[in-house]
Each structure stands twice: as C-alpha cells, then as structure tokens.
Amino acid sequence: MGMFAALDSSASGAKVSRIWLDAISDNVANVNTVRPFEEEPFRARLVVAQSYENGDDRGAQVAGIVTSGEEAALVWDPDNPYADQDGATAGMVRRPVVDLSVEMTNMLIAQRSYQANLSVMDRVRDAYKSALSIGVK
Prior knowledge:
Helix content is 43%, strand content 20%. The protein has helices at 5-29, 100-133; strands at 45-54, 57-67, 74-76, 92-94. Helix 1 packs antiparallel against helix 2 (100-133). The two termini are 30 Å apart.
C-alpha cells in the first residue's frame, strides 16, 4: 500500500460525492419542469457508485448515471400550454419523475459523505505533517 493511499481513497470518495451532489441539484432544479405531452418527461438522474481496486490503488468511482424508471404521473392542468389537446388524456400534463423528499434525503447523505471524505483528508494531512516534523527542532 502506497504512502498516500488513504489520501487517494478519500479523494476518490469526495469526487463521487461531488458528482452525486451535482446530479441531485439537477434533479431538484427540474422538479417542476413540464415538457410537451408527446415528449418524455424529465427523469431523476441516479448516480451508480462502485469500489475499485487496482493493485495498491483503491477507492470509489462512478460506474454510471441512470435515470429513474418510474412511470410519470398525469395531472389535470388544462390551462398549461403543454397539456395534451387530443384523446382521452386531453387537459393532462405529464409531471417530471422526481420525488423532492427522496432528493433532499439523498442530498443530506451525499453532503455528509463529502464532508466525511474531506475530514479524512484533513486527518491524513495532519498525520503526514506530524510525521515530517519528528526530529525537526
């Protein structure tokens, strides 16, 4: 294991948390985004993280970003310019597939993960500084 393995590992975890926070902020920003009825509604982006190990190098990485597979809710809103004009769904609007309470919970988890990784980086840096100062007078 390399000398800076703990630093590299926590840095990779912080990077995953940052990407997760970016996806969450995009989801929250689009919680009320309505598109024309014929178009696919906005779907929440979900970050898939995985651990990796390559020799002495270990950490976390983003394996991919997927979209929510849930069905979009139809809401009666005939005054909306994007409401369907024809057929059995006339006056209906497709809502985005974003659950604000889930996004806020995920935001707290991602934020705490980011903070924990930065805290580890601070502790590692302090330990390295202490080790370097041994014997220096």
